[in-house]
TrEMBL record:
<dbReference type="InterPro" id="IPR046342">
    <property type="entry name" value="CBS_dom_sf"/>
</dbReference>
<feature type="domain" description="CNNM transmembrane">
    <location>
        <begin position="2"/>
        <end position="191"/>
    </location>
</feature>
<comment type="similarity">
    <text>Belongs to the UPF0053 family.</text>
</comment>
<feature type="domain" description="CBS">
    <location>
        <begin position="208"/>
        <end position="268"/>
    </location>
</feature>
<dbReference type="InterPro" id="IPR036318">
    <property type="entry name" value="FAD-bd_PCMH-like_sf"/>
</dbReference>
<feature type="domain" description="CBS">
    <location>
        <begin position="274"/>
        <end position="330"/>
    </location>
</feature>
<dbReference type="InterPro" id="IPR044751">
    <property type="entry name" value="Ion_transp-like_CBS"/>
</dbReference>
<dbReference type="InterPro" id="IPR002550">
    <property type="entry name" value="CNNM"/>
</dbReference>
<dbReference type="GO" id="GO:0005886">
    <property type="term" value="C:plasma membrane"/>
</dbReference>
<dbReference type="InterPro" id="IPR016169">
    <property type="entry name" value="FAD-bd_PCMH_sub2"/>
</dbReference>
<feature type="transmembrane region" description="Helical">
    <location>
        <begin position="62"/>
        <end position="86"/>
    </location>
</feature>
<protein>
    <recommendedName>
        <fullName>Magnesium and cobalt efflux protein CorC</fullName>
    </recommendedName>
</protein>
<dbReference type="Pfam" id="PF01595">
    <property type="entry name" value="CNNM"/>
</dbReference>
<keyword id="KW-0812">Transmembrane</keyword>
<keyword id="KW-0129">CBS domain</keyword>
<keyword id="KW-0677">Repeat</keyword>
<dbReference type="Pfam" id="PF00571">
    <property type="entry name" value="CBS"/>
</dbReference>
Length: 425
């Protein structure tokens, strides 16, 4: 074999390896595309994305086209290398060509192009789509025949290629996407999105104001005391009852009370006439569903009841929204009656506080699965009613019982999370 033929064969071999690398790399690039981003780019009019989406809509055709081209190219490379090796070195050249070809194709036609394509999927896939679309149109009959045989074999084992659909992203997958967004989504917005995803995991029972903390108007009290309560209340809506919250009469809007007072018509009868029928919420209702219920019922406040119909607490639209957007204040502890910062960096905390409220106010991570109050969490952990002075470590937070009363923990001195637990977070 003279030098002219050897140079021609070398050039042909180089071109075939490039073609094989193209098929291998573009296959990886197209299959690595983010389908949600691809859909967004296609809807935005990106021509490369539109073509790539069209190709991926029929993955069996695309894979058939790529493998057909790649295998045909690799067969030509093998035949050419074998011929050149035999021409140069005789029978030994066949073994040399086989060994060198295996190593060369693995590096230059498989590993390197596929790694590059995986790292820069869009930059490889979109230009390649301009080649694959017309190529598919040209060799479609052959691709169709290959797919017909392959799909028939798949159907024999119970797999139907026609059932290919984009798998919806699960809640946990979406959570991972939001967490990994980094600087693309501001941290506060990330927390809001994660809060929305958690609405289905939380029930109204988890965020309600407990029954013993409900602030309302008792119509059986003296009228002067009722007037004083109405004048000094910080709430927009209040439950009104007779003697006990179980004998609820309705919900009053303070704005309507002021209108009656301005016209000098405010008394118990007119107050009762302004009441709106109470709205009851089953305690197991998820926050997501309750948000929809508040919207459809045009309500902002509801009474939470258990399976027996007994009132367990009260929940408002504001309570629900705080689960998404956080507290409606810069410093939540400044307006919390249950959390009192101390000069040494600790906090004096009421044992009846909800753990979710405590976590949200201080940015802590006490466990929320199980007991809903700090008192319940401590009792569950110790499995006994502790004496004052008892200390316990829960999830890395040192808690000291300061006061107990009526078989419950009333006051706790809590320290910030220990450093070693913060690092393991």
């Amino acid at each position: 074999m003279d030098n002219a033929h050897l140079g021609l064969f070398g050039l042909l071999f180089f071109l075939l390896v490039l073609i094989s690398a193209f098929f291998s790399g573009t296959e990886t690039a197209l299959m690595s595309l983010n389908r949600y981003r691809l859909r967004h780019l296609a809807e935005s009019g990106h021509p490369g994305a539109i073509r790539a989406q069209r190709l991926l809509s029929k993955p069996d055709r695309l894979i058939g086209l790529i493998l057909l081209g790649n295998n045909l190219t690799n067969i030509l490379i093998t035949q050419l290398a074998t011929y050149v090796g035999y021409a140069l070195f005789g029978d030994a050249g066949i073994a040399i060509a086989t060994g060198g070809l295996t190593f060369g194709l693995l590096i230059f036609a498989e590993v390197a192009p596929k790694t590059l394509a995986a790292l820069h999927a869009e930059r490889v896939a979109f230009p390649a789509s301009y080649i694959y679309v017309p190529m598919l149109a040209v060799v479609y009959p052959l691709v169709w025949l290959v797919n017909l045989i392959a799909n028939s074999i798949l159907r024999l084992v119970g797999v139907s290629p026609d059932d290919v659909e984009a798998t919806p992203m699960s809640r946990e997958e979406l959570r991972s996407v939001v967490n990994q967004a980094g600087g693309l989504i501001p941290r506060r917005h990330q927390k809001m999105l994660l809060g929305l995803l958690d609405l289905d995991k939380t029930s109204v029972e988890d965020i309600m104001v407990p029954r013993n903390e409900i602030v309302g108007i008792d119509l059986d009290e003296p009228w002067d005391e009722i007037i004083e309560q109405l004048e000094h209340t910080s709430y927009t809506r209040l439950p009104v009852y007779h003697g006990d919250i179980d004998r609820i009469a309705g919900i009053v809007h303070i704005r309507h009370v002021f209108k009656l007072a301005q016209s000098d018509r405010l008394d118990k009868e007119t107050l009762e006439a302004e009441l709106r029928a109470p709205y009851f919420i089953p305690e197991s209702t998820t926050l997501n569903q309750q948000l929809l219920n508040f919207q459809s019922e045009r309500r902002r406040i509801g009474l939470v009841v258990d399976e027996y119909g007994d009132i367990q607490g009260l929940v408002t639209l504001e309570d629900l929204l705080e689960e998404v957007v956080g507290e409606f204040t810069t410093d939540p502890t400044a307006h919390s009656r249950d959390i009192h910062p101390q000069s040494d960096g600790s906090y004096m905390i009421d044992g009846s506080i909800h753990i979710r409220e405590l976590n949200r106010a201080l940015g802590w991570r006490l466990p929320t699965r199980g007991p809903r109050t700090l008192n319940g969490l401590i009792l569950e952990h110790l499995e006994m009613i502790p004496e004052p002075g008892t200390s316990v470590l829960i999830s890395g937070y040192p808690l000291e019982i300061v006061q107990t009363k009526n078989n419950a923990v009333r006051t706790v001195r809590a320290q910030p999370r220990l450093p070693q637990y913060r690092q393991a977070r």
